[in-house]
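Extended Data, record RulB protein
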Amino acid sequence: MTRKAFILIDADNFYCSCERVWRPELWNKPVVVAGSGDGCVIARSPEAKSLGIKMSAPVHLVREEHWRSGLIICSANFPLYGDLSSRMMRTIATLVPAMTVYSIDKNKLHTVDTQT
């Protein structure tokens, strides 16, 4: 019997990871990315998650509550994230026969048929 296999790749904390690519001083520090207009949190590093910062939390409240922890708040840089996403997708595409881009940080890979 031949079956098709599918794999979902999700780049964890993608926006924070993108910020860290260009600003290595952010590694191992609590980082959040604020959405358009800096209104709410749209991405959190593992260190920020461990502080209890929630997705969609209002940035002004997060700033007030966590300023002592060394929290770094980045304004969203969608051109940067799009560029790094394109690079990631192009690299992955060289390894698989077919791929569907699901979002800026996710894609579904269509692998070759497998025998079971």
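Summary. The first strand starts at residue 2 and ends at 10.
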